[in-house]
Amino acid sequence: MASHLGQRIATARRTRRMSQDALARAAHVSLSMIRKIEQGARVPGDDTLEAIAGALGMDPGRLLPGHDHSGSRMRDALPSISAAIAGYDIDLGMPAPPLARLAAQVDEAMAYRLASQYSRLAAIAPGLLTDTVAALHAATGPERQTAARLLTSAARSADAVAYKAGGRDLSARLIDLMRWAAVQAEDPLLDAVCSYVRAETFFAARAHTVGLRALETAIDSTPTGSPTATAARGALHMRAAVLAARDGNADAAQLHIGEARTLGDTITEDIYQGTAFGPESVRIHQVSLAVSLGGDHIADALTVAREWKPSASLPAERRSGFYIELAVGQLDAGRADDAFESLKVARSIAPQHTREHPWARETAGTLRRLKRADADSLTSYAEWIGAI
User: Fold this and answer.
1) Would you place residue 30 in the very low, low, confident or very high pLDDT band (cuts 50, 70, 90)?
2) What is the CATH number of the domain that holds 61?
3) What is the C-alpha to C-alpha distance for residues 149 and 146, in angstroms, rounded to an integer?
4) Do 83 and 35 belong together in one domain?
5) Is residue 313 part of a domain?
6) The whole model's pTM is what?
7) Which range marks the domain in which residue 135 is found?
8) Is residue 314 a part of any domain in this protein?
9) Which of 97, 181, 245, 345 could make an S-S bridge to 152, C-beta 3.0–4.6 Å?
10) Distance CA 303, CA 292 (A)
11) Where on the phi/psi map is residue 167: left (φ > 0), alpha (ψ -120 to 50), or beta?
């Protein structure tokens, strides 16, 4: 089995014109590991296999037939994540790792989140939460603020698993933990991050009006001046624009995306406080709000997509989200073939994110019904994503 698996990985890598080093970096594993796997000297574990498949833009089952997809492992991790935060405000006197070691682990978790490698994130999230909670309770003086920032970031990464796996109640509890820790960090920009993530709960509950009000309040409270503050405000404006669009408030949506565009033009696209912001992210959100508004606005989304595509430097989840939402707009505009192509691009960028995205599943199911007599590839995609 090991030799056949290694050959399939090597063939897929060469087909994509990737070096072993490039695959190792994209999958967040060592170069020696990739070499041993391709030589058949090492059998990758489930998390490593899924990381390699994600870097290759493939479903793990295509590399190893019969492999169970990541969604079940994400859901299996939810009870452990829940247990890790059950008494986060209670000091149990547990020993905590050094903050420097925790910081490296928190950065690793954020890298998994940005790369949409949720199964790998699910594997480390419970332990990371336990350790960062213990660290905050044990820390004193300036180290307490550092520990609070680490816990906030760890909770955000764990929330990505909970939210994508459908654990909405757990997601809300993790966001409450983020907000509790952010207060102790005494960092207003961290409060902005919490408000940005908290918007998930408003999207999930379809509470768009109150969500928009909450984001506008957060924008007013976010400081100005530094590039990081500019990015924080811009990210909040982007989310506010989409919430307004989901609420059918076109004027507010255009106002907020305009503010985001103005702020984005002053800085370089980058990752700030764990969130990508800059001109490219603003364009992606232009497509999102146009699709959300629907009707005549769909043409705006198609125009953006015709003239521009997101670069590979953006986080995988954001890029795949662009193509998923574009597919919705293309289907609405009667361009079924284009919609299917966009869904395939989304899958190639971030398979785990695409597979767990309800809009991708719904769009694939609709395409399958509309084009029932078409090629097997559409049926295969619909089966992969769970639409049939």
Assistant:
1) confident
2) 1.10.260.40
3) 5
4) no
5) no
6) 0.81
7) 69-185
8) no
9) 181
10) 15
11) beta
CB 87 within 8 A of CB 24: no
Nearest one of 74, 131, 124 to 100, comparing CA atoms: 131
Q: How many CB atoms lie within 10 A of CB 149?
A: 24
Q: What is the pLDDT of residue 373?
A: 47
334-383 confidence digits (pLDDT tens): 999 999 999 999 988 888 889 888 899 999 999 988 875 456 688 888 87
Residues 6+ apart with CB under 8 A from 363: 324, 327, 328, 331, 339, 343
| Residue-wise pLDDT tens digits, 67-77 | 555 567 788 89
pLDDT score, position 253: 96
Distance (Å, rounded) from C-alpha 365 to C-alpha 369? 6
Q: Identify the pLDDT of residue 59.
A: 66
Report the distance separating Cα 61 and Cα 69, nearest Å: 7
d(CA 62, CA 41): 20
pLDDT for 127 equals 97
Looking at 36, 68, 100, the residue that finishes a domain is 68
Question: Count of residues for the chain?
Answer: 388
